Amino acid sequence: MSIALIIVAAGFVLAIGLGLYARLGREMGLEQWTVGGRGFGTVLVFLLMAGEIYTTFTFLGGSGIAYDKGGPAYYILCYLTLAYITSYWMLPPVWRYAKQHGLYTQPDFFARKYGSRALGILVALVGIVALVPYLVLQFKGLGIIVSTASYGALSSTSAVWIGAAALTAYVVVSGVHGSAWTAVIKDTSILVLVIFLGIYLPIHYYGGYEGLFGAIEAAKPGFLALPAKGQSPTWFSSTVLLTALGGYMWPHTFASLYTAREPAAFRRNAVILPIYQLINLFVFMIGFTAVLQVPGLTGPDVDLSLFKLSLQSFPPWFIGVIGATGVLTALVPGSMILIAGVTLIANNLVRPLRPAMDDAATARLCKILVPVLALICVGFTLSGGDTIVQLLLMGYNFVTQLFPCFITSLMRRNPLDRRAAMAGIVAGVATVAVTVVSGFSLSSLPFLGPLQDVNVGIVALVVNLLVTAAVTQATRARSTARARAAE
To answer: Coil, strand, or helix at residue 471?
Structure first.
């Protein structure tokens, strides 16, 4: 066994050990398992939220899109900043409402706000559909990391199976406590490693950033800017808007914010996280350095750019360190996604059908469902071929359809009722599903001009808003007519 593989295996063991340690002295009932007993302080909430965002997407997808697309990669910096700023005002009222009503999941919030169990079921279904590609993304990244770090001694398929088994055991035993403890090691490791690579590699190959950008511009003029077509300024703006609005619409994000001890934790994190996300700049530098040093990667292989460059730059023991850090970036968010997914199924799909089901029975069902959901996602991982960034954007297209009825639910007088909210979500999600299944793209409609580059998720959001407005108008007209008839 190579030294690199031994270090990667040590990363697995460390993560599982921390997960087991995190549950000591605690009864893992539903509240402890899913939302950490609502007792996490600012630091743990920060690590959980950073853990959700700095995943294999950051580690491999960020460098992959910088390698493959160049300038369009900067959308990542923009949307995260906007999402964090809105969290300053948006998250505290959500936390207070969840605390007041003892909520566990995102669908609980919608169902309670709109007084509709059916809406809760619909939101749960949307959440599960969106979470599957996000968990597939983590397994896919895990397979790439372990296979590459082992110099091919372990296949990507074997790595995905081993990772899924480890993740399942880790989640069943410790729940969200294990995610929070492991996130301490994971965020420290990724911060140190990515900053080092983002500084060292450009200096090593080009003498610094000026040399890096000059070499790329000479070899591929315009690569570091937005192209006139495709991922153009229109695509950039619409994608930033879509992902910023959807940034806090993920089910596992709601679960993380429910873990907080006090709402002030979100406002402190809203100040820190925009600075912390500058780590992505160093990820981009790694991808840009790889453009001319490991040319020829295409399709899903662009996600290998960080590792291909590292393999020709560092000794095996350091590849092992990179691999072990990469394993943690997959396990922490993967565990949170898995917890959120099975809680949606048990608490929001099964429990409404069995009113006698209590919290203890729901917690048991959650743990039974963990390996089932993991197996489904492993199946999609081994049969899919999309890049990591494509998988993430697909998930965003779905969850952003929840944003209109979410934001109106925070108003003093919500202008929407459950019928309008459900109609809008169904219309938006159906639009996304049709485009995904059919492969339709606005780029096939040249008469649209610059608008043909609009992100399809924004198109679905517009359909969502139009249907929501139409149903709201129709229900008001019907209510007015009934009131007049009653007079």
So the answer is: helix
pLDDT digits (tens, 9 = 90+) for 187-233: 888 889 999 999 999 999 999 999 999 999 999 999 999 998 888 99
User: 3-class DSSP state for residue 105?
Assistant: coil
Q: Are 128 and 341 within 8 A, CB to CB?
A: yes
105 phi and psi, to 5 degrees?
A: -135, 170
Are 336 and 180 spatial neighbours (Cβ–Cβ below 8 Å)? no
Helix, strand, coil in percent for the chain, rounding step 5: 80, 0, 15
Distance CA 221, CA 213 (A): 10
Taking only the tens place, the pLDDT of each residue in 380-391 is 888 765 555 566
Q: DSSP letters of 329-381? A: HHHHHHHHHHHHHHHIIIIIIIGGG-TT--HHHHHHHHHHHHHHHHHHHHHHH
User: Rounded CA gap, 75 and 107, in Å?
Assistant: 29
Contact 468, 404 (CB under 8 A): yes
Q: Is 233 exposed, middle or buried (0-12, 13-18, 19+ CB in 10 A)?
A: middle
Helix (H, G, I), strand (E, B) or coil at 141: helix
Q: Strand, coil or helix: what is 108?
A: helix
Per-residue tokens: 124: 């749960």
Instruction: Give the single-character DSSP code of 151.
Output: T
Cα torsion through 93, 278, 305, 71, rounded to 10: 90
Top-confidence range, 160-169, 334-343, 401-410: 401-410
Nearest to 329 by CA among 69, 62, 82, 109: 62
- Which CA distances in Å does 127 have to 173, 342, 453? 24, 11, 26
Find out whether 374 and 168 touch, Cβ atoms under 8 Å. Answer: yes
Q: Please name the residue that has the structure tokens 């944003």.
A: 403
Please state, in angstroms and rounded to a whole number, the distance separating the CA atoms of residues 22 and 184.
12
Q: Is 312 in a helix, a strand, or coil?
A: coil
Buried b (16+ CB within 10 A) or exposed e, 458-487: bbbbebbeebbbebbeebeeeeeeeeeeee
User: Distance between CA atoms of 285 and 281, rounded to whole angstroms?
Assistant: 6
SS3 260: strand
Length of the chain: 487
Take residue 183 and report the two structure tokens written for it: 């996130």
Alpha-carbon torsion, ordered 142, 230, 70, 282, to 10 deg: -60
Q: What is the pTM of this model?
A: 0.86
